[in-house]
Amino acid sequence: MKEKIQKLEQEIKEALSSVRTQEELEAVRIKYIGRKGALTEMIKSIKDAPPEDRPYVGKMINVLKASIEGRFKQGSASGAPVPAGKPSGIDSSLPGAKFDLGSKHPLTQAIDEICDVFLGLGFRIVEGPEIETEYYNFTALNIPDDHPSRETFHTFFLDVAAERHERTGTDHKALLRSQTSTVQIRIMEKEEPPLQIIAPGKVFRPDATDASHSFMFHQIEGLMVNKNIKFSDLKGILDLFCKEMFGKSTETRFRPHFFPFTEPSVEVDVSCMICKGKGCRVCGRKGWLEILGAGMVNPKVFEAVGYSPDKWTGFAFGMGVERIAMLKWGIGDIRIFYENDLRFLKQF
Ligand code: PHE
Q: What's the predicted TM-score (pTM) here?
């Protein structure tokens, strides 16, 4: 049987190489792979081959058939152009097959856009791990054990052995970071000021999922440390960022707030881009939308990383990417970002 297949293969090759016209090509096709063609008959006879040979013989025939069909699809068996006046079966004036062009996920686009503004201001992008320890998520950020503000950052703890922090020699539970402020500590531990970094990434909080909450979302952290950095620097940079992000006419408002790792702390609002500050459903008739948290780095945080608070000052800020993307594009439900519904994704 194997010899028969090889013989047939040789025969078909020779037949194809002497083909000159479309009609001859068609005749070869009928003779070998037509309904009663030699190769077709051979496929039918696989069942007569010894059982142990069948898989191999079947495979050989299939490969041969596929290669011949491929030659016929090209329209010209020898690869040479079919004589003029005879249609080749291919209309080269037709437009080519269209491929769907992919695009970046809207959250990636938002992250890129936010980062671009800060890159233009001399910030550098850094990243930190999503699996963290209590030390980076809390302790070094001036949130000691049992401090009530640990409650504000609901956290997924991991069921693995505690990890020893190298420098302090203390043991800390592993967790999924609930804020990107962890990256501030990681960078300051490694590098000396001056520093100007932004850190985009995923954070996790065990919140019940609804239109505005997800157990995983994205934040972008910012940190600037140098000599003589003042609150007015924080205001100037964040005001400029909001105008770049939401339009030149955007106004900002800095409200006193509390974060353990910054002092003083603020929450930053932007004038509602939907109603231009007049009050609407999106801003709850307030005319303002809360967009980020920020403040001057608490000297306790500098002490935790070994910086002298007498020498250095700085500011930090953190913002939610989903929230910014939702406001920018008028998206009403956070869950749609994670469903990968092409009808949504194709709009970006
Ligand atoms: N980490 C804070 C949060 O998740 C945001 C923040 C970052 C506030 C840096 C101040 C400074 O809410």
A: 0.73
Q: Which atom of ligand 1 is nearest to the CA of 320?
A: 4
| CATH superfamily for domain 106-130+176-345 | Bira Bifunctional Protein; Domain 2 (3.30.930.10)
**Would the CB of 262 count as within 6 Å of ligand 1?**
yes
Question: What spacing in Å lies between the alpha carbon of 213 and ligand 1's midpoint?
Answer: 17
Q: Is residue 6 within 8 Å of residue 58, measured between CB atoms? A: no
pLDDT by residue (tens digit) across 112-121? 999 999 999 9
Q: What are the structure tokens assigned to 169, written together?
A: 């020699």
**Beta 131-133 vs 124-125: how paired, if at all?**
unpaired
Nearest CA to ligand 1 atom 7: 318
The CA–CA distances, whole Å, from 237 to 21, 24, 196, 317 equal 74, 76, 12, 11
pLDDT tens-place string over residues 159-216: 998 999 988 999 999 999 999 999 999 999 999 999 999 999 999 999 899 998 999 9
